């Protein structure tokens, strides 16, 4: 008996019990569909997160005070001195620019509207390093710093909420913690990021923030944003910065009292989290596939019992053990294969709907049905069919012809 | 070539039912010539079915030798037995045992498929169906055929591999007397025209009297016609 015939015969036999076959297939459809959909949503989440981290700028590094993984006693704060050292071309040739930032959440209001947003005290370099562009107005410049001018650049979200518009707001005076600031420009939207929304921000001159809004002691810096000369030099820039800061903080021996983060670090962390999530979701979905497989086994056992006489007849006509085994394995594999194929469609549909729902809620989540997920689900479901088909098929193949023919 | 298609020497078959041993066959010896028509008779419990299973290679004797068409089959393994059944035995059952989902042609093709024949299979099956007078109905399914026609399909299926013996178990048992008569005529015609060796297991004396020799069984032993 060749394979094509075995398949045709198996299809005929499955077709003779349509409802039963359909229900058995449904078990596999749900299992495979769930696996595909979960993997798709998982990898979609991964891409969304990776994408939004990349949106920050590809050659960006962050320097924070303190060590995130080890305990350090009396960590030295980052200072403006550190910033100038990092900007030294000879000490750090891979660094293109470095911008000190102090930040804090404050009340911002305009004619009765009040919101809370993140205030950044920045230098003109910050706009360059973070790759910010303006919808209108002009950037913060050196003289604003020197004059400790009460001027502000506002993010598009702030503009939306306070003015209900993103243009024509330059020249208005907003109040931050009750103090008047003149709006000199509006930032282009950047979307959500690793530190929450990058659009709900107000940028003010560093010295102004230091003196009037955030109140840090002289020289103190919360975060240093550094841009490397190119995406390829990010790694060496990180090494150079670490070298400089170890020397300046006299921590050449022992743990660093600062942390340099690159985007790769963020992406790697985010990927670890989403991978765990994907495996977890996929695993739960896999259980339903397993249940579907048990359904196949159940129905095949019933089928073997029902067709005992047929098996006896086939053996009397010269069917060998192997022929019967192949016949029943073909049936169970076909059940799971058909279920798998429909399941891929269902999974794709679920993923598509999840994507639509996410889009409707302004969430950046596009589920990705990968070829690997499809292959995995098809292989896995066929394997399930084979595995759970082996026992019933074996039982059929081992029937004694005399006994089987006598069965009523 | 051996004159005898079946040679059985001192066949016994003992079934174990729990701790009780049931001696279904207690030493049976007989021979059947090529081209002979033999019937096996006996009351229920006489070992008739057991003997039929041994002749048809569906089962192995507990002891004794059984030679079918020159081949010693009493020591063969399951898959080898399956091959012997396929090549040398054509079965006709009381309840026809056709596959309900398959057409007459597909039913007749089945033994050829298990024999691994791939070329000219449909043609051979069609010729077998012509032989039993069903050339017009090869694409009908069993439920579209009368009982007599179904049994003809079964006979075609039994003949398609050109076996050494045709083994019929109460072939007319499920038929009305008219179709039963037709089936018996067909079987006897096949013997006359093609020289097919035929063994009929029956308890109907009217069937048995149409055969050349009657082997009578009683309590696991041959009481008449052993030759």
TrEMBL record, chain A:
Subcellular location(s): the record lists:
Cell membrane
Question: Mainly localized where?
Answer: membrane
Q: Which Pfam families match?
A: FtsX, MacB_PCD
InterPro entries cross-referenced by the UniProt entry = ABC3_permease_C, MacB_PCD, Macrolide_Exporter_MacB
Tell me where the transmembrane regions lie: 21-42, 279-304, 325-353, 373-391
Give the molecular function GO annotations: transmembrane transporter activity
Query: What topology does it adopt in the membrane?
Result: Multi-pass membrane protein
**Record's GO cellular component, any one?**
plasma membrane
Q: Where is the ABC3 transporter permease C-terminal domain?
A: 284-401
User: What keywords appear on the UniProt entry?
Assistant: Cell membrane, Membrane, Transmembrane, Transmembrane helix
* Keyword Membrane included in the entry's annotation: yes
Instruction: Please give the superkingdom of this protein's source.
Output: Bacteria
Q: Where is the MacB-like periplasmic core domain?
A: 21-243
Q: Which family does it belong to?
A: Belongs to the ABC-4 integral membrane protein family.
Its protein name is: ABC transporter permease
UniProtKB/TrEMBL annotation, chain B:
Instruction: Provide the ABC transporter domain boundaries.
Output: 6-227
Which keywords does this chain's UniProt record carry?
ATP-binding, Nucleotide-binding, Transport
Q: Which organism is it from?
A: Anaerolinea thermolimosa
Which PROSITE patterns does the entry mention? ABC_TRANSPORTER_1 (PS00211), ABC_TRANSPORTER_2 (PS50893)
GO MF annotation list: ATP binding; ATP hydrolysis activity; transmembrane transporter activity
Q: What is this protein called?
A: ABC transporter ATP-binding protein
Tell me the PANTHER family matching this sequence: ABC TRANSPORTER ABCH.1, IMPORT ATP-BINDING PROTEIN
Pfam family membership, one: ABC_tran
Q: Which GO terms describe its cellular component?
A: membrane protein complex; plasma membrane
Keyword Nucleotide-binding appears in the UniProt entry:
yes
């Amino acid at each position: 008996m060749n394979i094509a015939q075995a398949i045709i015969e198996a299809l005929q036999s499955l077709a003779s019990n349509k409802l039963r076959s359909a229900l058995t297939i449904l078990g596999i459809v749900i299992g495979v569909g769930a696996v595909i959909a979960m993997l798709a949503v998982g990898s979609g989440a991964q891409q969304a997160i990776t994408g939004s981290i990349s949106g920050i700028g590809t050659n960006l590094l962050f320097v924070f005070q303190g060590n995130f993984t080890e305990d350090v006693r009396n960590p030295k704060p980052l200072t403006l001195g550190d910033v100038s050292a990092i900007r030294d071309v000879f000490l750090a040739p891979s660094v293109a620019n470095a911008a000190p930032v102090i930040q804090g959440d404050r009340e911002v209001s305009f004619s009765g509207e009040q919101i809370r947003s993140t205030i950044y005290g920045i230098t003109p370099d910050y706009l360059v390093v973070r790759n910010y562009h303006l919808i209108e107005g002009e950037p913060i410049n050196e003289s604003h710093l020197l004059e400790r001018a009460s001027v502000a650049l506002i993010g598009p979200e702030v503009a939306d909420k306070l003015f209900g518009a993103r243009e024509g707001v330059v020249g208005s005076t907003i109040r931050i913690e009750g103090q008047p600031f003149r709006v000199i420009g509006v930032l282009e939207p950047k979307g959500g990021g690793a530190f929450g929304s990058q659009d709900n921000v107000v940028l003010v001159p560093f010295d102004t923030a230091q003196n009037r809004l955030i109140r840090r002691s002289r020289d103190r810096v919360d975060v240093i944003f550094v841009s490397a000369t190119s995406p390829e030099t990010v790694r060496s820039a990180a090494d150079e910065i670490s070298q400089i800061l170890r020397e300046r903080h006299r921590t050449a021996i022992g743990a660093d009292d600062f942390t340099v983060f690159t985007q790769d670090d963020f992406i790697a962390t985010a990927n670890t989290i989403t991978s765990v999530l994907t495996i977890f979701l996929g695993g739960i979905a896999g259980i339903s596939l397993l249940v579907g497989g048990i359904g196949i086994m159940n129905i095949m056992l019933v089928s073997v019992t029902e067709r005992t006489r047929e098996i006896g007849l086939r053996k009397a006509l010269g069917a060998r053990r192997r022929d019967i085994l192949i016949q029943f394995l073909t049936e169970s594999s076909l059940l799971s294969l058909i279920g798998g194929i429909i399941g891929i469609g269902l999974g794709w549909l679920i993923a598509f709907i999840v994507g639509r729902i996410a889009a409707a809620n302004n969430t950046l989540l596009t589920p990705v049905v990968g070829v690997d997920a499809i292959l995995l689900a098809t292989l896995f479901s066929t394997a399930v069919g084979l595995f759970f088909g082996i026992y019933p098929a074996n039982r059929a193949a081992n029937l004694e012809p005399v006994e089987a023919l006598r069965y009523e | 070539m051996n004159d005898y298609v079946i040679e059985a020497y001192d066949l016994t078959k003992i079934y174990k039912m729990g701790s009780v041993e049931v001696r279904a066959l207690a030493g049976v010896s007989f021979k059947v010539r090529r081209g002979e028509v033999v019937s096996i008779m006996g009351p229920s419990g006489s070992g008739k079915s057991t003997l039929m299973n041994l002749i048809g290679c569906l089962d192995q004797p507990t002891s004794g030798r059984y030679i079918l068409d020159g081949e010693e089959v009493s020591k063969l393994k399951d898959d080898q037995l399956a091959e012997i059944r396929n090549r040398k035995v054509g079965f006709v059952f009381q309840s026809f045992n056709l596959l309900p989902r398959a057409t007459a042609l597909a039913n007749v093709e089945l033994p050829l498929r298990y024999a691994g024949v791939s070329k000219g299979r449909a043609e051979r099956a069609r010729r077998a169906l012509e032989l039993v007078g069903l050339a017009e109905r090869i694409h009908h399914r069993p439920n579209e055929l009368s009982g007599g026609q179904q049994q003809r399909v079964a006979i075609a299926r039994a003949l398609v591999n050109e076996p050494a013996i045709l083994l019929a178990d109460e072939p007319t048992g499920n038929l009305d007397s008219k179709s039963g008569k037709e089936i018996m005529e067909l079987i006897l015609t096949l013997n006359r025209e093609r020289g097919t060796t035929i063994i009929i297991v029956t308890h109907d004396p009217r069937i048995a009297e149409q055969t050349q020799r009657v082997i009578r069984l009683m309590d696991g032993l041959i009481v008449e016609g052993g030759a």
